[in-house]
Write a structure and sequence with these properties.
Helices cover 12% and strands 46% of the residues. It is mostly beta strands. The chain has a five-stranded mixed β-barrel with strand order 1-3-4-6-5. The protein starts with 6 loop residues before the first strand and ends in a 14-residue tail after the last helix.
Length: 147
């Protein structure tokens, strides 16, 4: 039987803060909610904005980084695959859900949107500040730059 393709790439904003959990074996798994806005013309010719909401699952170290540095409202790009899971609810009914299993998550936007207190509000972390201090005593020669 031929294999199908269930590949997804999206860019959107987080609808809530990431939720980090551990599996019983100790593997990290992070759940994200992502909103992607689309627009279309209705029957009267007016543009209508429509938000689309997606659940994203990020495994391992990449999931830990998402939980550490992302927060509600932050823009991200996700590349992954669709996965449908089914279960039986407590009331006996069957439930199913389609999620995006992230292969790559790219953080979009500035560090000031990060969750780390040292990075929030544009403050520099200690390594970044030290790196800038390395260049303060260098004489770049003023007008000797050829461009």
């Amino acid at each position: 039987m031929a294999r199908g393709i269930a590949h997804v790439t999206l860019v959107g904003n987080l609808t809530r803060d990431p939720e980090l959990r551990q599996t019983p074996s100790g593997t990290s798994v992070c759940q994200l909610g992502v909103a992607v806005n689309s627009s279309y013309k209705d029957s009267s010719g007016q543009w209508v904005e429509k938000p689309n909401f997606f659940d994203v699952v990020v495994w391992g170290a990449q999931g830990e980084n998402c939980a550490r540095y992302l927060s509600k409202g932050r823009q991200i790009a996700v590349d992954g695959r669709l996965d449908q899971r089914s279960w039986e609810a407590q009331d006996g009914g069957k439930r199913s859900k389609v999620e995006i299993i992230a292969e790559t998550v790219m953080f979009i936007g500035g560090q000031s949107e990060a969750r780390e207190p040292a990075l929030r509000g544009g403050a520099q972390s200690a390594p970044d500040a030290a790196a800038q201090d390395d260049f303060r005593d260098i004489d770049f020669g003023g007008d000797d730059i050829p461009f």
